């Protein structure tokens, strides 16, 4: 089936391409000479070596095209004859190179559309984008090859049809964060079905094998000519061989064009897998088993390219002319380059090291080669080594593209000392996995770069570089791959800021980038998805719309432009004002506002506060948070307003996170006077002594839990928290004569005064020096 017939079988594709050709008045030309144009252009060299050669090809095509058109004038259809004359006139008016390039680009678009119709699911169901954090302005990052392997795509390989998003590239309208807090996925691109990719590879390979059969017949005829040069039939056979070889060369070029597209498709899908791996570092869902399907595609491609390489070599061996076949030699070099690219791209980190890495602490990682068994490497497995690189070293290394270098000297580029940094690759027969596991690595030393301005060690990114040297198909090849960025710390108090660096990088990095460049500002819509993903994966319950509203209040940004400069000022909005998420979703949040600049009237940043709340919830409030008993993200004014309007009256309470205390949780309740009381915040060390549920049980003033965004109905205190209470054993007399004591929580409503609580000296509450006067012995604060 011709390419145009495949396009015309899909109405949308036919309409799109018809509009493309009609823009230059070439639609009738494409329709009337469809097979001839396809055979001629697709048999030409894909990437001519020089401009002069390209012009010669274009001029020759122009002449042959006119002759082909004129030869069709014998038709009895007068209308067709007149149209042919008009087309010939159009061809003469159009520069040859322009005409040839336009038709050639059109064929590439058709080829891509036809392949996509075969390899993508026809359902086209909406799904979350590969990078849900990035908005519609970041759509161009996915076409080039990744930084850890060579980019050999040139010329027409980068052409994408209008309105078509190349596989792996996030298109317009990624997602919208609605006011209710839900993330609404927008149609981004059809989901690639890897099974159908394998079917398409097999179909293209079967088409190529027809060329192999023709090549075998040519080889037999060629040897007949060599052995029977005095035979009268030899000259006719020789001429027939020349014609057959020309047809075979055209088929080989066409097969390589199909192969090259399929290889780019599979490698792009691998890049998408790696991007999903980075998002998984923030807690996003991740299906690791997809890598097995990608490996099957790599294995099929390796068989395809090996056979293609062999066929080109055999065709070159059929020397019918004394002159060297330059075009076939160029095609051979292109196929060899594509094969090396395939082999190098298949070397990846399948199990990432910890992204916040503490010195002198054991950690693990593993690398995998998706073509190990296919290349026979498992018979003599190479040893993989690992070093740690700084961001600058990684940038310099990647820019050199050392895959094809004669020497892969990486020892002098290390920024630290890693123990147990070498491992031999192993092949698992039952799973067909060829990998090297590093189970006991340990970073002993680290060399840091000089800091500039406000930079800290928690902002500095490193990466583990895994590399190996082996021989593939008679040539030596150096493969390497970089891990996701890591931050190296020496003390636990460096962990929060380090996770800010990693969270931002995982969420907002482009699929293809220089290590480890990332944008320094994002919209609130993007940031809210990242925060929701991080908090939800850590605490096992996603944030709700009201939770995101509260965070939005903390991060509402107004942009003020002055001539060429744009300054971003943090506005802490009035607590009584209801912010609409859709009004601020497009406002930008800078990296400094995210984790460097203190919040208004606070001595900590937004990230410090958010991370502390996340850690407190995970360590001490997890079960109650998952059950929806904690309102959490609500400001003080709204909490007071909601409680005053509650129909359940005195004793109604809610649990909220303190916005003035790092990692603090507090209770707001309606007291006996009908006003709202705020209990001073409890932090982790308080909850280690008495957990939150037991504290609520101790406070007799708390009677009814106010509805939360999960539990929409009021709940009796004991019904809401009873399952989380700690069982208290009945007191038994001690044999040593001492009387047992217990620790309980009290407030002024229970004792009639504002005396300190709890009564045991170990229960002294933490001083809230940032939000209230020095009430060191008090756990109560009246508004």
TrEMBL record:
Keywords: Activator, Cytoplasm, DNA-binding, Nucleus, Phosphoprotein, SH2 domain, Transcription, Transcription regulation. Residues 731-783 are annotated as: Disordered. InterPro entries: p53-like_TF_DNA-bd_sf, SH2, SH2_dom_sf, STAT, STAT_linker, STAT_N_sf, STAT_TF_alpha, STAT_TF_CC. Its main location: cytoplasm. Belongs to the transcription factor STAT family. It comes from the Eukaryota. The gene is LOC115621766. Residues 625-669 form the SH2 domain. GO terms for cellular component: cytoplasm; nucleus. The keyword Cytoplasm applies. This is Signal transducer and activator of transcription. The keyword DNA-binding applies. One of its GO terms (biological process) is cell surface receptor signaling pathway. It comes from Drosophila lebanonensis (Fruit fly).
């Amino acid at each position: 089936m011709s390419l145009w017939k495949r396009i015309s079988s899909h109405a949308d594709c036919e309409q799109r391409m018809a509009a493309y050709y009609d823009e230059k008045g070439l639609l009738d030309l494409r329709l009337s000479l469809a097979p001839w144009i396809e055979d001629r252009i697709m048999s030409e060299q894909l990437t001519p070596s020089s401009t002069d050669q390209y012009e010669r090809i274009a001029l020759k095509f122009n002449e042959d095209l006119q002759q082909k058109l004129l030869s069709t004038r014998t038709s009895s259809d007068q209308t067709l004859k007149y149209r042919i004359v008009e087309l010939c006139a159009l061809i003469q008016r159009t520069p040859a190179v322009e005409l040839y390039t336009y038709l050639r680009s059109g064929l590439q678009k058709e080829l891509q559309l036809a392949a996509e119709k075969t390899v993508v699911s026809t359902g086209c169901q909406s799904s979350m984008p590969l990078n849900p954090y990035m908005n519609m302005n970041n759509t161009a990052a996915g076409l080039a090859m990744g930084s850890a392997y060579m980019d050999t795509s040139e010329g027409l390989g980068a052409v994408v049809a209008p309105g078509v998003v190349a596989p792996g590239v996030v298109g317009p309208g990624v997602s919208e964060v609605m006011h209710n807090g839900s993330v609404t996925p927008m149609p981004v691109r059809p989901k690639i079905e890897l099974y159908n990719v394998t079917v398409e590879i097999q179909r293209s390979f079967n088409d190529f094998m027809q060329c192999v059969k023709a090549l075998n017949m040519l080889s037999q005829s060629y040897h007949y000519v060599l052995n029977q040069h005095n035979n009268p039939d030899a000259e006719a056979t020789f001429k027939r061989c020349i014609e057959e070889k020309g047809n075979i060369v055209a088929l080989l070029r066409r097969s390589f064009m199909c192969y090259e597209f399929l290889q780019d498709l599979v490698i792009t899908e691998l890049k998408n897998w790696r991007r999903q791996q980075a998002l998984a570092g923030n807690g996003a869902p991740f299906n690791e088993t997809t890598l097995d399907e990608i490996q099957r595609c790599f294995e099929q491609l390796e068989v395809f390219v090996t056979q293609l390489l062999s066929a080109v070599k055999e065709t070159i061996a059929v020397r019918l002319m004394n002159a060297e076949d330059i075009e076939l030699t160029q095609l051979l070099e292109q196929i060899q380059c594509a094969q090396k690219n395939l082999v190098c791209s298949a070397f990846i980190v399948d199990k990432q090291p910890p992204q916040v890495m503490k010195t002198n602490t054991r950690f693990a990682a593993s690398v995998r080669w998706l073509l190990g068994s296919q290349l026979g490497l498992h018979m003599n497995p190479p040893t993989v080594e690992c070093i740690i690189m700084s961001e600058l070293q990684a940038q310099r290394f990647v820019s050199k593209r050392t895959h094809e270098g004669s020497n892969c000297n990486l020892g002098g580029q290390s920024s630290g000392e890693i123990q147990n940094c070498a491992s031999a690759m192993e092949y698992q027969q039952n799973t067909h996995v060829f990998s090297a596991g590093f189970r006991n690595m340990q970073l002993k030393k680290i060399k840091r770069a000089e800091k500039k301005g406000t930079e800290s060690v928690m902002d500095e990114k490193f990466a583990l570089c895994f590399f190996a040297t082996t021989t593939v198909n008679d040539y030596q090849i150096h493969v390497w791959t970089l891990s996701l960025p890591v931050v190296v710390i020496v003390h636990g108090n460096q962990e929060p800021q380090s996770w800010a660096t990693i969270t931002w990088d995982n969420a907002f990095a482009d699929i293809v980038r220089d290590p480890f460049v990332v944008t320094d500002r994002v919209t609130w819509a993007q940031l809210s998805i990242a925060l929701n993903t991080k908090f939800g994966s850590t605490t096992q319950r996603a944030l709700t719309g009201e939770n995101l509203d509260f965070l939005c209040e903390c991060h509402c940004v107004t942009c003020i432009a002055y001539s060429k400069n744009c300054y971003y000022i943090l506005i802490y909005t009035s607590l009584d004002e209801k912010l609409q998420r859709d009004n601020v979703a497009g406002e930008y949040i800078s990296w400094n506002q995210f984790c460097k600049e203190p919040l208004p009237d606070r001595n900590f940043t937004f990230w410090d506060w958010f991370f502390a709340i996340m850690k407190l919830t995970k360590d001490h409030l997890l079960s109650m948070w998952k059950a929806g008993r904690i309102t959490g993200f609500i400001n003080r004014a709204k909490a007071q307003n909601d409680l005053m309007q509650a129909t359940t009256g005195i004793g109604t309470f809610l649990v909220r996170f303190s916005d003035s205390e790092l990692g603090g949780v507090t209770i707001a309740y309606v007291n006996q006077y009908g006003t709202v009381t705020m209990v001073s915040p409890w932090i982790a060390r308080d909850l280690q002594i008495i957990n939150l549920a037991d504290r609520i049980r101790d406070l007799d003033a708390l009677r009814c839990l106010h509805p939360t965004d999960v539990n929409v109905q009021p709940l009796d205190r004991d019904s809401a928290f009873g399952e989380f209470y700690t069982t208290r054993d009945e007191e038994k007399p001690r044999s040593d004569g001492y009387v047992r004591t217990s620790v309980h929580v009290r407030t002024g409503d229970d004792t009639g005064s504002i005396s300190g609580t709890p009564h045991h000296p170990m229960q002294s509450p933490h001083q809230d020096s940032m939000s209230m006067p020095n009430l060191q012995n008090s756990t109560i604060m009246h508004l």
